[in-house]
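Page 37, continued from 36.
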């Protein structure tokens, strides 16, 4: 019996041993790109057995980067992950017979060797590297002085533009967000990032089209891509504190102060920023240089304070920010406009002055939670509160002839007629004159939130997603206004129009959406995608206007002057013709179906959205009390095709079609004459519009020659677009505007960018060429036939920016030139044709002197030619300079002297042209001044290498800073 028992035990042990050896195990995980955190779709995943590296199992990752290998036996293995454009990753794997599955978590891939091919010598670092649809810029290839902020670096990037309002375009695409190591910085706010991120913390900058949260998680292309600028922090700088503080004072009572403190530790970020300045710095001012971009329209003083954080664990990502902002803007402007008419043009001139104060608080939060390998939850709330206070005064006049033919400055004589002057050189051509004054106050509250929950149903791409959003807004404003309009044409048969009014305009709105998406794999790397979204919108506005001119018939004996409070009994004087109530209810259904095909060389995504809509408008104004309902059916096709010739060459084509409906109020047959010189009417016969947008993009890069080329072309056109048909009253000088459908509006643009290093890598050349053609159609009123004639205005623009740079480790010198040539043609009024052009040329230099001193200067001549108004044809020679001295241990402190527009030639002129008019505006501003600035940098990093990187200033990547247009050569025109 004992022998039998022992044999049985031995047999069971052997059986168990054999079973254990044959037990199979499931291996799973996810593959992502280390830089963007985007999933690596269709990466090759192989499991190799040790020690002979024999193939055991393999699979391609899903569209979201997930993989689950076929079951294998217990033992020692190595996981090999390959992905085009990235380094091959090897992960040791020990599979135990005690477990039925092995979860490897997230596997990150680093950019491949060809992507990282950078010269060790700073002077030979490639300026730009192309990786599929991502452009990667090396910050060490561009020079900025000590303490320079991100904006100065962006200005130097090939194809980058920053306008006066701080909006950034790279290769014609507007940057919507700024990221730091893949995390949003202050909610991605571009201006805040430009002003506060120091160049000497940045290793690389990447620009790419970031997918929406929905597309990133599900792989379903919802067409909501946005161009972002993603910054990679230098190695070692994510282990401590760094920041800077500065204070500056200058001539013309200019001042600026700044404080910025950052703590980056591993996967956590914290930033605190604050500033106060009156140099028109609309973001946060920075140390080590003067203002960067400035809004030229007036003088603006700002105060700002903000905090931002981001942290990440294996399963949870948190981030958010809070910001306070105060701005005080004082603007004075003169305007000259010419309206094209069939029977002689109309001319209008105006002077205006205003002051606007705005206070705003904003807070946002972001949570992304991955409770398990199959589920992803994203929550984004946001709240904002603001107050505003404004005052404005203006004077204007309309003429039936060009006033510049009579006097050199017509704006000096606009309203002398109101002052009792008998000497009026413009009397013969006057049509009307107007004075107005107003002040207003308002406050607004808004809140919104979005929740997205995704569940992966298998490893082949099947998933389901719910997404919900909610938003709420509450705005309230009141305005006091006073105006006097006088008519000079005897045919007008109108007396002076005097108005004194008090207006309240409360509005409320809210909306919510519920969306469900589903993705089904139907073949290898081929997915059907379905989406349904319901949206409800509600808005309510109730404008009430009261006359403050007493009505004797009502026994009112009070008299109101501008600046007085509301008189007793003003409620009895409600103007029903100028008051209105509107309530909108909007129901939208969006049904989308698409096909997504992913292959090694190409990716194709196409689909269509069907959008039945129902809208109800309750409208009350004067004698009109109506309810309007509308049921429409829109559709929106889209195509996105990408072909990858190699890891550095790609072709991409996108097409998007969109149907849009005219606003409900435009469909009402009502008249709004609250402004007697600008009367608006509705049009019940308006048709829906349909827009087409196509884009073709190609780029390539040669790493050995450090040579990159990129080209793209855009075509946009609209069928049944809505334009304003304007009827001009020659007697009063006023216009009546009515929306009408029109065909023929389209625009085409082409761009070619080229950058290369020469054989001697210290020399580089950058070229950016572009051409744009705009075909704009409108209606011109024909006073003889009393009908509107269709007019076509075309503008063909050619532009070229070219610069060459020499750079070594202590000296940089750049020559640059640009030209923009415009061919403007007007079909019905060819006498308005002109060929204006602007050109500029100049040089800049940055020199690192002994004793930790740096010198930066540039000079650029901006010229305008070809304008019918001779005063516009002028040169502006803009010269800026800065000298900076570093001192204290580690060059922690800098004192700099900055001079802007030394020759006092910069102007603040803007110009616009449409199919029915052209205008020129000039604003006040202080462009020429000097500033003395002291800056101190705090660098407390976890290792010596990082401290060295941060302190290595001057030519560790950047360029001099300057006012609007920066040290890149002043403001273009």
């Amino acid at each position: 019996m004992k022998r039998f028992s022992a044999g049985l035990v031995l047999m069971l042990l052997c059986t168990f041993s054999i079973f254990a050896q044959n037990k199979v195990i499931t291996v799973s995980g996810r593959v992502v790109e280390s830089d963007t955190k985007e999933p690596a779709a269709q990466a090759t995943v192989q499991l190799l057995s040790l020690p002979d590296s024999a193939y055991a199992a393999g699979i391609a990752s899903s569209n979201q980067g997930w993989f689950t290998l076929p079951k294998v036996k217990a033992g020692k293995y190595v996981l090999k992950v390959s992905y085009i454009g990235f380094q091959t990753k090897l992960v040791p794997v020990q599979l135990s017979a005690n477990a039925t599955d092995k979860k490897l978590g997230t596997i990150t891939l680093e950019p491949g060797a060809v992507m990282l091919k950078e010269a060790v010598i700073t002077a030979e670092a490639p300026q730009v590297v192309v990786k599929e649809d991502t452009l990667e810029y090396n910050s060490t290839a561009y020079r900025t002085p000590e303490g320079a902020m991100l904006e100065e670096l962006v200005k130097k990037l090939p194809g980058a533009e920053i306008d006066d309002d701080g909006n950034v375009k790279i290769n014609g695409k507007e940057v919507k967000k700024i990221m730091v190591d893949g995390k949003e910085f202050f909610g991605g706010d571009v201006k805040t990032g430009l002003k506060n991120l120091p160049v000497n913390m940045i290793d690389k900058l990447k620009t790419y089209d970031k997918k929406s949260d929905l597309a990133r998680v599900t792989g379903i292309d919802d067409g909501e891509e946005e161009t972002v600028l993603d910054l990679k922090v230098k190695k070692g700088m994510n282990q401590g504190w760094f920041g800077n503080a500065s204070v500056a004072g200058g001539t013309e009572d200019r001042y600026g102060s700044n404080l910025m403190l950052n703590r980056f530790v591993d996967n956590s970020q914290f930033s605190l920023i604050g500033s106060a300045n009156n140099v028109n710095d609309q973001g946060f001012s920075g140390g080590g240089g003067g203002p960067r971009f400035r809004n030229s329209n007036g003088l603006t003083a700002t105060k700002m304070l903000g905090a931002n954080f981001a942290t990440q664990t294996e399963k949870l990502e948190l981030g958010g920010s809070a910001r306070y902002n105060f701005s005080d803007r004082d603007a004075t402007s003169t305007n000259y406009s010419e309206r094209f008419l069939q029977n002689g043009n109309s001319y209008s001139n105006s002077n205006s002055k205003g002051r606007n104060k705005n206070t705003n608080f904003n807070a946002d939060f972001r949570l992304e939670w991955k409770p398990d390998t199959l589920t992803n939850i994203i929550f984004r709330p946001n709240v904002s509160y603001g107050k505003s206070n404004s005052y404005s005064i203006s004077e204007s006049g309309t003429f039936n002839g060009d006033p510049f033919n009579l006097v050199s400055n017509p704006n000096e004589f606009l309203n002398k007629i109101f002052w009792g002057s008998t000497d009026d050189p413009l009397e013969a051509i006057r049509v009307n004159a107007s004075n107005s004054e107003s002040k207003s106050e308002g406050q607004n509250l808004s809140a919104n939130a979005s929740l997205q929950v995704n569940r992966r149903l298998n490893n082949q791409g099947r998933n389901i997603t719910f997404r919900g959003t909610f938003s709420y807004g509450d705005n309230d404003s009141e305005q006091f206004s006073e105006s006097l309009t006088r008519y000079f044409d005897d045919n007008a048969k109108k007396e002076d129009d005097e108005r004194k009014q008090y207006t309240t305009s409360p509005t409320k709105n809210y909306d919510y959406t519920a969306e469900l998406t589903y993705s089904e794999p139907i073949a290898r790397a081929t997915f059907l995608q379905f989406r349904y979204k319901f949206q409800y919108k509600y808005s309510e506005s109730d404008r009430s206007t009261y006359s403050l001119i007493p009505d004797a018939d009502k026994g009112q004996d009070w008299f109101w002057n501008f600046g007085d409070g509301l008189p007793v009994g003003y409620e009895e004087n409600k103007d029903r013709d100028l008051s209105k109530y509107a309530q909108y209810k909007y129901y939208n259904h969006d049904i989308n179906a698409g096909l997504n095909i992913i292959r090694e060389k190409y990716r194709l995504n196409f689909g269509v959205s069907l959008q039945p809509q129902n809208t109800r408008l309750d409208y009350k104004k004067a004698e009109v009390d109506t309810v309007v309902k509308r049921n429409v059916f829109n559709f929106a096709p889209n195509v996105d095709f990408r072909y990858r010739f190699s890891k550095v060459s790609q072709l991409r084509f996108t097409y998007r079609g969109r149907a849009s409906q005219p606003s409900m109020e435009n469909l009402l047959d009502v008249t709004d004459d609250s402004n007697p010189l600008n009367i608006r009417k509705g049009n019940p016969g308006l048709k829906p519009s349909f827009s087409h947008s196509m884009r073709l993009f190609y780029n390539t890069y040669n790493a050995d020659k450090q040579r990159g080329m990129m080209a793209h072309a855009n075509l946009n056109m609209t069928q049944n677009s809505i334009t304003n048909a304007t009827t001009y009253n020659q007697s009063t000088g006023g216009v009546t505007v009515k929306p009408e459908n029109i065909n023929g509006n389209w625009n085409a643009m082409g761009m070619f960018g080229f950058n290369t290093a020469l054989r001697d890598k210290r020399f580089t050349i950058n070229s950016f060429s572009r051409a744009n053609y705009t075909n704009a159609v409108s209606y011109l009123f024909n006073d003889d036939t009393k009908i509107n004639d269709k007019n076509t205005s075309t503008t063909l623009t050619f532009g070229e920016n070219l610069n060459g740079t020499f750079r070594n480790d202590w000296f940089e010198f750049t020559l640059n030139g640009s030209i923009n040539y415009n061919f403007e043609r007007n079909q019905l009024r060819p006498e308005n044709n002109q060929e204006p052009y602007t050109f500029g040329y100049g040089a800049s230099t940055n020199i690192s002197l002994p004793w930790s001193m740096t010198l930066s200067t540039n000079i650029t001549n901006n010229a305008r030619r070809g304008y019918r108004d001779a005063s516009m044809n002028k040169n502006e020679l803009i010269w800026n300079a800065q000298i900076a001295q570093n001192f204290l241990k580690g060059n922690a402190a800098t004192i700099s002297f900055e001079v802007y527009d030394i020759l006092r030639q910069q102007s603040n002129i803007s110009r616009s042209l449409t199919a029915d008019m052209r205008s020129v505006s000039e604003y006040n501003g202080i462009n020429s001044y000097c500033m003395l600035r002291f800056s101190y940098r705090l660098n407390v990093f976890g290792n010596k290498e990082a401290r060295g990187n941060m302190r290595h200033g001057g030519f560790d990547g950047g360029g001099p800073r300057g006012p609007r247009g920066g040290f890149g050569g002043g403001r273009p025109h």
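The radius of gyration is 32 Å. Flag for discussion at group meeting. The CA atoms of residues 29 and 909 lie 58 Å apart.
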